[in-house]
Amino acid sequence: MAERRAFAQKISRTVAAEVRKQIAGQYGGSPQLLKNLSVSGNATSTAIPLTEAIEPVDFEEYLITHPPIIESGPLRDLIEFPPDDIEVLHTPRECRTLGQAVPEEGENDSHVRDCIRSYTEDWAVVNRKYHKLGTAFNPNTLDKQKERQRGLPKQVFESDELPDHSSYQDDQDDLKRRSMSIDDTPRGSWACSIFDLKNSQPDALLAHLLDRVPNEEIDRHNEDQRKSNRHRELFALHPALDEEEPIERHCVPDVPKEHFGQRLLVKCLSLKFEIEIEPIFASLALYDIKEKKRISENFYFDLNSEQTKAMLRPHIPSAAISTLARSAVFSITYPCQDVFLVIKLEKVLQQGDIGECAEPYMVFKESDAAKNKEKIEKLRSQAEQFCQRLGRYRMPFAWTAIHLMNIVNSAGSLERDTELEMGLSERKGSWSERRNSSIVGRRSLERTTSGDESCSLTSFRPATLTVTNFFKQEGDRLSDEDLYKFLADMRRPSSVLRRLRPITAQLKIDISPAPENPHYCLTPELLQLKPYPDSRVRPTKDILEFPARDVYVPNTTYRNLLYVNPQSLNFANRQGSARNITVKVQFMNGEDPSNAMPVIYGKSSCAEYSKEAYTSVVYHNRSPDFHEEVKIKLPASLTDHHHILFTFYHISCQQKQNTPLETPVGYTWIPMLQNGRLRTGHFCLPVSLEKPPQSYSVLSPDVPLPGMKWVDNHRGVFNVEVVAASTIHTQDQYLDKFFALVHALDEHMFPVRIGDMRIMENNLEAELKSSIAALNSSQLEPVVRFLHLLLDKLVLLMVRPPVIAGQIVNLGQASFEVMASIVNRLHKYLDTSQDMHGRNSLLSSYIHYVFRLPNMDPNSPSPGPGGLGGSVHYATMARSAVRPASLNLNRSRSLSNSNPDISGTPTSPDDEVRSIIGSKAMERSGNRMSSHTESSSFLQTLTGRLPTKKLFHEELALQWVVSSGSVREGALQQAWFFFELMVKSIIHHLYFTDRLESPRKNRFPERFMDDITALVSTIAGDIVSRFQKDLELVERLNTSLAFFLNDLLSVMDRGFVFTLVKTYWKQVSTKLYALQNPTLESLRLDFLRIICSHEHYVTLNLPFSLLTPPASPSPSVSSATSQSSGFSTHVQDQKIANMFELSVPFREQHYLAGLVLTELAVILDPEADSSVPWMFGLHKKVISVVHNLLSSHDSDPRYADPEVKARVALLYLPLIGIVMETLPQLHDFTESHNQWGRPVGPGTEEQEAEGNSMISQTVAMAIAGTSVPQMSRPSSFLLNPQATRQHGSFSAESSRSLLICLLWVLKNADEMVLQKWFTDLSVSQLNRLLDLLYLCVSCFEYKGKKAFERMNSLTFKKSKDMKAKLEEAILGSIGARQEMVRRSRGQLERSPSGSAFGSQENLRWRKDMTHWRQTSEKMDKYGFIIK
């Protein structure tokens, strides 16, 4: 051994310099040798180390100068992107209703028109038609692989069929078979029986057994046999990588749609009292007692018989079908244990208080009907009289409540549909939780507690409830506050309500999860929802939710409802008789009584709309509480004359002569608009004793009008709440002001009245800028609701600067700043709705579906002088501060030297950035301004908006580049948003100007390209400089930049985008090799993986440059002048070698593939492992990048043709050399399976290797300049064991992935090219290649069911161990201190019976114990000697 080492060293010193060139030429694909050579004096001038960025080929120029030879077919499709690559689709938005939800035709203002347009226009979607063919949507996932493997024939393996016996038993069976008893044959043994031999049938002859067939023919036949029935996709047979969600996947965001919580269908089946004497009216609503809020509008229903309804015919001539609903769908966004379903009953007003009117219902029983017949008839006749006279008015009667979650949780626990009877008798728990449970089924309903049980309303079983008891309403306890106290009391075991005397009744209700699309359903606006087969069927109502907390969802449909809730009135100090008080509510559009609008929704069994609504009357109460809800359909456009009028009446219950039924006792009102804003909220209004005077509607009742008399000296005596559910009115002062100013600008209406201010045109600019800045102060909920409209308006202000008083006002900077601020607020407060890349779902859906360039309607005529395609001026107006040349230089990094606008070679990165950002921008800001003013001299006419338009993507890039400080930081935090906005703007611009087909070099002006270059450079600089301080931000920034460049490859000059990739690469490389930080390398791998996930990745690598016969491959861009062919005597051989090496021509031409393989070579480099240990942890990551690419190519239908697949494989030929180089590091799959392969002993291996080779293996290794192997492994399994083994080998998973990639290349690459390369390999390299293939066989051979079962049991054991460790860590049963103590004890005790660590320490000297014996065998095979 020592002699061989000395010999090797001697050879190395004397002749290595002479022969290394020849060996390097023969060895194709050693990146390490290439790197070494590039450093040495023998390197050619064109060799560039793999760690340095290389200049990419000018893609567009190359396509022009190298026209394809192939005319058509699948190979032709590799050359260029398909013409239908990008589509701009205008897809109609899905409408839930049969008719479009829009206001009636009329004079709507511009804000209403904008809102309606925002809610009705089609989605503007950019579709990359082949995007799903990129690696992000690789079908080789575990689920999809199972589907694709279904068609495979079932394999039966001999090893699985053999009986499982010991070898001794097998021998015995074999012996028995051979020594058969003579008695088993008719006449002795077969051998002795000539008779039997003569009569036996011969076997069939083997045809052509003795024919002479040429060896080539046999080989060809065998090859055909091997290839027949072979599965075409290799990766479909290989288990998918165990990865999380692939980083390159950009999921399409959900379509914006109306918000709904969990939905509940409530059907009211019947309501029956002990006596039936009059109509009873019911309402349902949901209450959250924790939030003390009613969380739904009221649902009114009528279960009276037709006979009973007839009593009210004089007052209700006909009932609209929409008011006959008996079922409703409730939505609950925040379901919890505190939600109650409250049922309130009302009856027709009659003389007497509630107690007197309820008494008959408590006293009379149905069973005693015959006995009490006369009394009941008398009551009925009284009721008829009251119905005829007072049928218009109602009075409170009774109420009850259902603890909703109890029903849901209980019904969910039952095995079938549930029927519950709810009563008050024999209760052990609180009233609403305990039922007098007669349950159809075997199990009784147990009481559920009010803890934090699951509150899901989507999966419980439908339940039918029978409510048997109601509570009488208390005349002085009708307010919501009283109700919340009652509901809270219900949940207590000793409920006060238990002691009350109930009104006996039977109300049957069905509660079930609502179906997805219920039939015959009406929206809260009474529009018919799909499907609605028949308009004559009794409908179900969709009940509007008032969520307990804010819901952050943008508006998508028109809704404009107003809910007026009178709460209380105090007439205690009013003079005169006013005791039975009702409030008449009217919505007026003028002051005349005839101006009452028919916009108040009917309740139950009445007209659909009415002009007035009355509150219920509390008998003889001067200070009544109310619990009404008056629902109003607001007109789309309101004026100063719209108001709500409240008229207070005293109702005479007794019929007296000369006494009117209604006596007005007071008036008050609420103007709908105050300074242009909708008035909502709580009001405490004074009440006038007289009719309001003329022109009262424009004033508030708080204003003391002269000559008017007021109740209680003009004090507030009437409490009312007004709530709007509107997608027109923002109800936020800052948003209102911004929209008002923008619309005043649109319509050129001055002065504008906002709040107490009258804004004239001369101070409009300052107000507009302050209103834009003040958007940061607005509430988040209205900002989100009007997000689409708000962002649209900010975009419009950027691209169409307004003209105010003859001056163009540039609002680009202000709009960009507030946009960045809004986006960051959404990310900060709505962090739950983000994807894996940190993209907020609301914002990404805005970009994907809503955003479009202003005034680019697809239905408008083709762009002409007035459209975008005409004279487009890129006007950036004078800024408040011209950007200085030194701006952003502290964060600038080197830019691409290929920029044609940079004169000379910059002396430093800062100079380079300065030359782009400084001079270019200042020159542009001046030029743009002058060109714009020349073309806009006619602006003195004050047309309001600038007739020429800027392009949004150009303005956005410019504003971003010149931004600084907190604005720039805000934009960086959410860079993805601005990048995606920019890309969509670019595509829309190209689409609407018919430039998607134009040459890419002519699509964009230089100034825009400069801004993009500066942007990419500075962001790459941020990534490099901040990754140690703020890794989370840098990860987001890194992926955002990668996706941006990926998108640009579809629309911009691809050579230019490659230079941007190089800019990033260069900056990261410089920092990476200075710091040697694995985080930075990991970021770069993520960046590369995203870039390479492009659906036309193969085309981007110019694969057609090799589409010539393999005997003479066409030269790459620089290979014609390359001197690297000095290693080979034949130029043609060098061209073949170039295809297998990461040579400069290869990396220039196949730019992205070159980057991928370069990263693989550098990270897996065995020699670098000792000096760059931080790379070791990235093996799996870089291998998965390659695996993912090849797996995607394998399943791509575009590359199904074998010839096309061969061209794709040519991009990966250097992979063969890279894997050969890493052979010593690969996991050894041959260890336990040597019985069938090559010999294992050290002597036999060396003899075989040296005997079969023309050159001794040792000599070949010495000539190559590497140390002599000291191990026993088939042939030359590794070159330098000490160096490579220092950091261990690859995992089995990584090795398997790398080997399957290698096999894919070998399987699909052109056989002639491979054959030519193989013939030029040295003996040592051929040996290594054979070893590699031998390892592949060992890795992928089928080892029988037993091996799989053993592997599965080990995996299960490992997972159990991990689970135990995780439990320990979570429960804290073992901490770091205990672990340290345990280890030290184990080492001190040094006894086999001690701790795990102690026993392992002693195992070292007990070689009979398996743990160390196995390890030592493994180490031996890798060439280590354990002493």
How would you characterize this protein structure?
Helix 23 (about 965-975) packs across helix 24 and helix 28 (about 1080-1090) packs antiparallel against helix 32 (about 1150-1165). With about 1450 residues, the chain is of the alpha+beta class. It starts with a helix and ends in a 6-residue tail after the last helix. Residues about 1-45, about 175-185, about 425-455, about 855-945, about 1105-1130, about 1235-1255, about 1260-1290 and about 1385-1425 have low confidence and may be disordered. Strands 3, 4, 5, 6, 7, 8, 9, 10, 11, 12, 13 and 14 form a 12-stranded mixed β-sheet that branches. The protein has 46 helices and 30 strands. Strand 29 (about 805) and strand 30 (about 805-810) form a beta hairpin. It is about 40% helix and about 10% strand.
